[in-house]
Each structure stands twice: as C-alpha cells, then as structure tokens.
C-alpha cells in the first residue's frame, strides 16, 4: 500500500479547492502520487459541479485512500458549515478550515499519511474561529509540538536552486529590527542548514545572509544591525564549520550569478525574501516549512478570491507543491 499525501482544503472562498480538484483531474498527466483531501465533502462536491468535474468524490479514511484513488477523489470528511460562495468569505467556514489542517497534520504525525500539502488560507477570516497564529507555519509547529513548546519553524520558498527564507515572517515592518537577534538568526540558519541536507539532499549547503539596511549597513553608516547582530551570529556558525556568507546587500544578492552560488538565502523580513522568488517564479515556486518533524508544502500564492470558482487559476504551483512533498517523503511511501 502507498501512503497518501494529506491535502487540506484551505479557504473555501478561494482557489485552493479548485486546484485540488484540478490536480486530481490531471493526476495521470502530471504523474501525481495518491493523495487524500481533508475537506467538507458536500462543499467539495458543490465546487466540483460548479467547475464541471465529473469524477466521483469518495468518503474514505487516510488508510483507504490509496486503494480508492483510481476510482475517485478520496475525501476525509470534515464537519461544519461550508458554503460554496467563490470569492465571498463566510464566517461559517472558519472552524472547518482549521479542523482540516489539524486532521491532516494528525494523520501525518500518526503515520497514515506521508506529508501535508496545504491549500491557501485567508488568515484574517480564521481569527473569529479561534485561530491564534500568524499563518500555517506557526500553527503547524504548534500542532507538531503536541502541547509542548513549539520549536522554531522556518518558512522557505523554493523554485529549483532559488530558495529564500524570511527570518521574520508575518510581523509589522516596524517590529522587524527588534525581532532580529543573534539567537534567532543562528537558530534559523541551523534549521536551514539541517533541512537543506535532510530534505533537499544538498550535501554541503552554502547559505547567504542578507543585511537589513541598504548596502548591508555600509560599514555601520546606515544602521548597526549588521555589525552588532548579523555578522557575529554568522561568525559563530562559520567557526562551527557551516558555510555561511554575509551579511550581503539585499539588492544585489539576487542578481542571478550571485544567488546561483548559494543553496539558500536567509533574508531579514517577509518581502525581502518573497519578492525576488515570486517575481521570477510565481507560477511554480513552493512554500515549504522547515524545522518540523513532518513535511509540509504549499503553493506560493494565496487564496486569489478573484479567481475562485472560475477555473482560471493556474494549478502549476500547487502541482509543484505536491511533487515536492512527494520527493521529500519517498522513503515513507509504503505503509
Ligand atoms: N499558503 C497560504 O495559506 C497563503 C499564501 C499566500 C497568501 N495567503 C493569503 O491569501 C490571501 C490573498 O493574498 P494576496 O492577494 O496577497 O495574494 P494571492 O497570491 O492570493 O493573489 C495575488 C494575485 O495573483 C493572482 N493569483 C494567485 N494565485 C494564482 C494562480 N494560481 N493562478 C493565477 N493567478 C493567481 C491573484 O488573482 C491576484 O491577482 C491573503 O489573506 C494572504 O494571507 C495565504
Ligand atoms: N508568507 C506566505 C506567502 O506570502 O506566500 C504565506 O502567507 C503563507 O504563510 P503560511 O505558510 O505560514 O500560511
């Protein structure tokens, strides 16, 4: 038996459900491994009919998903009220969106599924339903910690050899300087180094670190974070034997001849890391969470409410996310 990948439905008003259905319809063309969807079945059925997909949706358990996969899309039914209103967020669906993620992670931690691929969520829409995290990244770390203090999860966006990591993630820009410490940077770099080896098969990772300020502080004349925090953290890790360079000016770091010499770039804040990769590879880049005991990937895009229910959303990044989770969990394929 092949263990399936677990896919959470994401925001019902967005394009996540559409892409899950498209992925199943194109599973042979894209050579996708078996997967099961953690979703409200009635809602998925309605979205499938709206988009004109004729295949069956089968209620299964994760353990039955592999055997069912050729006959129909295996759905692990999540209870709740989930209206099929493309583009219109409903306060009713929040609980089911959260429960789908929780159930997908639980099935993966239990070993019934190989890894988790998440459909995009609209975070603000979940806060009324009790969501207390800035995004999946931190929520997954909390779920994986099972009540203990979560380890630091690390967000990476990856497309081929271009891999970018924001040190700080979903925080206001004004808080970024305060959140950059030698400890958080060293912890993040160790996770990136470890997972480049373990998850990406990079034998000797070489990591670049961006500065925070223009020109990486220009020797302290445009800010001191580089001299006071970033350089000392790098020096300590280099002393420990890791191949890390920086802090480098962020504006020229992504010039192709430069980034191609690194296996990953750790940037200081969300947009510094995500703008370069979404600019050159929005269609195909993958968001992967490092530092977890399980594999989790996701497309790089969000809910795209404007495209939900239209059939016009590109499935490429979602397919790339399934493929990456498949590649990273090859060793766990068989139950
Ligand atoms: N993994 C996640 O859960 C995740 C990731 C990113 C953003 N989000 C959330 O998504 C919501 C919307 O974010 P946003 O508007 O900044 O970004 P977005 O990625 O949803 O949309 C940005 C633009 O790209 C287009 N687009 C997105 N995906 C596309 C696809 N597959 N095919 C064709 N066009 C596509 C959209 O139509 C829109 O014009 C926010 O609430 C954000 O927090 C969630
Ligand atoms: N920062 C991500 C992006 O812009 O692509 C996105 O919001 C996803 O975050 P989580 O994986 O933590 O939900």
Automatic annotation (TrEMBL):
Substrate binds at residues 136-137, 278, 287, 296. InterPro entries: PdxA, PdxA_fam. It comes from the Bacteria. The keyword NADP applies. Its EC number is 1.1.1.262. The keyword Repeat does not apply. Signal peptide: none annotated. It catalyses: 4-(phosphooxy)-L-threonine + NAD(+) = 3-amino-2-oxopropyl phosphate + CO2 + NADH. Pfam families: PdxA (PF04166). Pathway: Cofactor biosynthesis; pyridoxine 5'-phosphate biosynthesis; pyridoxine 5'-phosphate from D-erythrose 4-phosphate: step 4/5. It is an enzyme of class 1 (oxidoreductase). Binds 1 divalent metal cation per subunit. Can use ions such as Zn(2+), Mg(2+) or Co(2+). It is found in: Cytoplasm. Its cofactor is Zn(2+); Mg(2+); Co(2+). Keywords: Cobalt, Cytoplasm, Magnesium, Metal-binding, NAD, NADP, Oxidoreductase, Pyridoxine biosynthesis, Zinc. PANTHER family: 4-HYDROXYTHREONINE-4-PHOSPHATE DEHYDROGENASE (PTHR30004), D-THREONATE 4-PHOSPHATE DEHYDROGENASE (PTHR30004:SF6). Homodimer. The active site is located at the dimer interface. NCBIfam families: pdxA, PRK05312.1. This is 4-hydroxythreonine-4-phosphate dehydrogenase. It comes from Devosia nitrariae. The gene is pdxA2_1.
């Amino acid at each position: 038996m092949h263990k399936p990948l677990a896919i959470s439905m994401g925001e019902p008003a967005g394009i996540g459900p559409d892409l899950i259905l498209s992925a199943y319809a194109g599973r042979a063309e894209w050579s996708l491994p078996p997967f099961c969807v953690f979703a409200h079945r009635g809602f998925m059925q309605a979205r499938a009919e709206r988009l004109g997909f004729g295949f069956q949706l089968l209620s299964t358990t994760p353990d039955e998903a592999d055997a069912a996969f050729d006959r129909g899309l295996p759905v692990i039914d999540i209870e709740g009220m989930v209206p099929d209103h493309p583009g219109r967020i409903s306060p009713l669906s929040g609980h089911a969106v959260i429960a789908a993620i929780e159930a997908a992670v639980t099935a993966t931690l239990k070993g019934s599924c190989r890894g988790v691929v998440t459909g995009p969520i609209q975070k603000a829409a979940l806060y009324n339903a009790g969501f207390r995290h800035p995004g999946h990244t931190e929520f997954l770390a909390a779920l994986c910690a099972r009540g203990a203090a979560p380890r630091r999860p690390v967000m990476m966006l990856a497309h081929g050899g271009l891999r970018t990591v924001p040190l700080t993630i979903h925080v206001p820009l004004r808080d970024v300087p305060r959140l950059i410490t030698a400890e958080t940077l060293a912890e993040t770099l160790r996770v990136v180094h470890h997972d480049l080896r373990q998850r990406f098969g990079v034998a000797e990772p070489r990591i670049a670190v961006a500065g925070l300020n223009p020109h990486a502080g220009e020797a302290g004349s445009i800010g001191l974070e580089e001299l006071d925090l970033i350089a000392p953290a790098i020096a300590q890790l280099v002393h420990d034997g890791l191949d890390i360079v920086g802090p480098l000016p962020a504006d020229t770091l992504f010039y192709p001849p430069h980034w191609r010499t690194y296996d990953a770039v750790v940037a200081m804040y969300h947009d510094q890391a995500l703008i370069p990769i979404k600019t050159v590879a929005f269609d195909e880049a993958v968001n992967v969470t490092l530092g977890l005991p399980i594999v989790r990937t996701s497309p790089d895009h969000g809910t795209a409410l404007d495209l939900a229910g239209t059939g016009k959303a590109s499935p490429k990044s979602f397919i790339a996310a399934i493929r990456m989770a498949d590649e990273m969990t090859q060793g766990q394929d068989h139950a």
